[in-house]
From TrEMBL:
GO MF term set: hydrolase activity, acting on glycosyl bonds
Signal peptide from the UniProt entry: 1-26
Ranges annotated as spanning the membrane: 447-465
UniProt-listed InterPro entries: Alpha-amylase-like_C, GH, GH13_cat_dom, Glyco_hydro_b
A Pfam family reported for this protein in Swiss-Prot or TrEMBL: Alpha-amylase_C_2
Protein origin, superkingdom: Bacteria
Sequence ranges assigned to domain Glycosyl hydrolase family 13 catalytic in this UniProt record: 38-349
Protein name (Swiss-Prot/TrEMBL): Glycosidase
PANTHER family with a match to the protein in the record: ALPHA-AMYLASE 1, ALPHA-AMYLASE FAMILY MEMBER
Required cofactor names: Ca(2+)
Keywords annotated in UniProt: Glycosidase, Hydrolase, Membrane, Metal-binding, Signal, Transmembrane, Transmembrane helix
Amino acid sequence: MIKKSLAALSAAIFIGTAGWVPAASAAGDPVLDDSIYDTLVDRFFNGSTANDRDVDPADPKAFSGGDFEGLLKKQDYIHSMGFNAVSIGPVFSTDTYDGRRVLDYGTIEDRFGTEEELTGLVGKYHKKDMRLFADFPLGGASANHVWTADHDDWAIDAGDGTVNWDYDNPEVKEALIDAAVSFVKKTGIDGLRLTHFGDADKGFLNDLIKALKSENGDLLVFSDAPSDANFDLIFNEEESSVLRETFSEVDPDSDGLNHTEMTEPPSLLFFDTLEGDRFTAEMVEKRMFPPTRWKIAATALLTLPGVPIMTYGSETAVTGTGQHGNHPNHDFKSDEDLIDHITNVNELRNQSETLRSGKFEMLYNEDGMIVYKRFTDDETWIIALNNTSETQRIDISEEQAGGAGKTLRALFGNDLVRQTENGSYRVVLDRETADMFIVEEDKGLNIPYIIAAILVYTIFLLFIWQVWRKGRQRRTEGSK
């Protein structure tokens, strides 16, 4: 409690005295403004028992009771971590808790809530400047889907109780496009992730995207697999693999990050998806400490070029393998330090256009010690990630820092790096830590900051003295 109170006081003083404000740079790509929290309705939070039908939270294959009401009740939880967009998975009537085995694109799963509740949820998220996305599964539908009864030539049996649609059939394409556009129109949803589209051709996907954009020009349309279609975000599995390999353990081969760059359209950045094994499981397998790993990984996720998407439970370092292990019920058992760190980095990203859409330059990258720059004409950030087992010292050149007479102010470590006699800026970082430095003009000693720092330690000493004095009084009274 003492540590947390002092940290909060120090942070408040820093904001009031450091003088950093986000640069008033030109507006960037609005797609880059999103910081996405990815979840499944059923696995997030049970906000109302009125719609609990065939619910068994103890069965990993059964419905658990999560609903739209739960997403509303936990809106502040997501918002407080700095996420301004939430992806909630498929919401159509379904055979399975994850929503993938769709029964009818025209109806909402009643275990999740009603269409009116979903529309209301979108509106209430908008009031906090948050966007809501949903999945539209283009394949893997239930064999009992309503279309299969009337159109025996539309579906291809997948042999596991599911069907895939015959994309060579013009009627199928038209029906899927109509269903997706109708869903967007009725609900006001802000984004659609097209999933399980298998071998659907690029032309069909582009027709679908075009129709969706005609209904809502601001709609974000992305995917869960690589595609050459005109999606707003690039799904880059290779980049995700590099991120996992780099941050799942200390002292890694981090050369893969040397290929990091701004892309057009932007890349979707992620460590986890709602498929496969959790990133945390990989850390555990390598005998690493997940909260420490996640702090460094989250800093990279939220500051590298692209649009970050974080799977629910990552903020509590949840582990799990396989489809059902990957979808645990969110128990909200918080690791406060990790959540605080995600919140801090996310808030900085939200405040700074530079961190979202500024240029990118790798300054140093060797065996897990990674330093890069995000910059515009008006603002420069240097992000240092010491993903090694030793303290590291890195010299940033005058040119890399943006010129002479600068200071690099750390936002987490309270360090102030000034130019040395040889013209460089030396950054020192403890093992397995990350920090972000805002580059400022060197204005000499920051007297208000020094006074504030003295005040923090004075208050701390007074607090310790009061605790000691009261303890002494209790001991004296107890001996009488």
